Structures are given as C-alpha cells and as structure tokens.
Amino acid sequence: MATRPPRHTHRTHAATINRRRYTTGRRLVVVDIENLIGGAVLHHTEALWARRRLTQVRAVTETDQVVIGTSHIGLIHVGTAWTHQRYVVGSGPDGADLALLEVLAEDLPTKYDEVVLASGDGIFTDAVAALCAAGVRVHVVAVRNRLSRRLRLVASQITLLDQPYDAAAISASA
Question: Most buried in the list 8, 19, 138, 170, measured by CB within 10 Å?
C-alpha cells in the first residue's frame, strides 16, 4: 500500500504575517509635504496650509504619530509649523521621498494598524502595496491632480484634496 505524503500546512508569508498581527490601534501619518505644496517649502505659511488641510480632512489627529519628509531648504519652516513631530530630510531629486521610503520600510505592521500617506507620488507604490499585503490599511491623501494611477490602485482608501496650495489665494484671504 502506498503511503500518502504528509500534508503541508504552511501558509504564504503574507498570510503568516496577517495571522500573527495584533491590533495596535495606532496610526502613522507620513507627510510628503513637498508633494502637497507642489515644491520645496519656502515659507512658514505653506507648511501651515498643509497641516491645516490634513487636519480638516481628518488625515491627522492629535493621537497620531507623524513623520514629515522635506528638503533641507524647508526644514525650519516645517519645524515651526509642525512642532513635536519626526522629521526626515533628503535633498536633491526625490531626496525627501527616499527618506520617507526608509520610514515606510521600518517594521510598521507590528506597530500600526493604519498608515496615512499624504502624497500622490508613484514612488511610494511598492511600499504601500507591501504594507497592504501585511494587513496594514493605507489611506492615501493627495492633491487631485498629483495622484499617481499606480498608487491609486494599491491604496486601501483615497482622499483627494480639491484645492492645491495657492500662495496668491492664501495671502488674499489673510
């Protein structure tokens, strides 16, 4: 009589991670402020606008952990508008994006249930897909005309900001 081979009960890597995840109730907000503003942060009002807009759409709350990526040019303006946050700095082409990608590569699935990514840059697509595969909800908040098609496809949730930053409109209303 032929013996039957043992049944394998192993799961895929993603399934194992999902099975072992515990709910933390914590949320990380990752802000690519240069994508929201449309360039380097050159004035304090630009950083304030980004913070207010993200608060208005409930992408940032008082209990969230927040990481903001900026170039060295905008660090002082970002730091005075967003106090008590974590800042990552990268300069040159995609410098801030690359610094934020390092944050997204940290062991986030064991620490957070949700990640809010305030950016529409397609450079984040693979990192967002990996987080989603590990069971983390990823909510992307982006200016309507700055959201990558690829990033739109992998995110768990999307919030579009209809009004991009407009310095003339901001100063006229002040």
Answer: 138
Q: Measure the N-to-C terminal CA separation of the chain; round to a whole number of Å.
A: 87
pTM: 0.83
DSSP classification of residue 65: E
Contact indicator for 80, 47 with CB cutoff of 8 Å: yes
Q: How many angstroms separate the Cα of 18 from the Cα of each of 25, 45, 88, 160?
A: 15, 41, 29, 29
Contact status, residue 46 vs residue 165, Cβ threshold 8 Å:
yes
94: left (phi over 0), alpha (psi -120 to 50) or beta: left
Quote the crossing angle between the two packed helices 125-133 and 95-104, to the nearest 10°.
Answer: 10
Contact 86, 68 (CB under 8 A): yes
Length of the chain: 174
Tokens at 125, concatenated? 């697509």
**pLDDT tens for each residue of the chain, 174 residues long:** 555 554 444 444 444 444 445 667 899 999 999 999 999 999 999 999 999 999 999 989 989 999 999 999 999 999 999 999 999 999 998 999 999 999 999 999 999 999 999 999 999 999 999 999 999 999 999 999 999 999 999 999 999 998 777 765 555 444
What is the C-alpha to C-alpha distance for residues 61 and 5, in angstroms, rounded to an integer? 54
